[in-house]
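User: ok so my PI wants both of these folded by tonight, can you help

Assistant: No problem, let's get them done. Here's the first:
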Amino acid sequence: MDKPQILQDIISAGLKKQDEEKIKTLYRENTINLAKQRANDIQYGGDHYKKMGIQPWDVCDTWPIEQQIGAHRHGVLKYIMRLGNKDERLKEAQKVLHYAQKLVEVLEKEKAGGK
């Protein structure tokens, strides 16, 4: 198998054929939703982080920009690599998109000159 080139290919590689349409729909819906909400405002797979006074991402947001980028790249990688091994694949794919959204937000902040 050739190495996947984009996030959607990586996610799809771990899915059964019948799940691919679910992922495409999820991708379209989340692309629309991502423009409306910040990553810190949503959570997939429960509300355990939302119940905390300070969420882990709040702590990461205080780190130097390169450390923030590394943390969110790790999150994307973690959920891609474990796809289907812990939680339902669709839920884990949502988490991949969630971390990717946070990574995009940090990269936009970096581009704008934020630290």
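One down. Here's the second:
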Amino acid sequence: VDMLIEGMEKAREHPGEIFNAGSGKATALKEVVDDIFHITASKSGVSWGKPMSSYDAPLWQADMQKTFSAFSWRPKHSLRNGLEKTIEWYRKSSLGG
């Protein structure tokens, strides 16, 4: 969260502009779900249900070219590490239980 806030503060210096926040590395939704299940020790199952729509992308990837060229902010954590930190924060907060 702190890393994202830092990036948002940098983006505020460019009113009206839109910047992506991410690592720029492609990630499949299944990888994210698997990481969350592993971190939380969840025994839940996933029903992927229906096939992807033609406009869905099998991989998610933020285009970071504009962000990286506009200012020196860079992500400091991997997606996995960010998920771990977010889940840990949630568990400690009043929202977690």
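Residues 6 and 23 are 14 Å apart (CA to CA). The beta strands are 27-28, 59-60. Good luck tonight!
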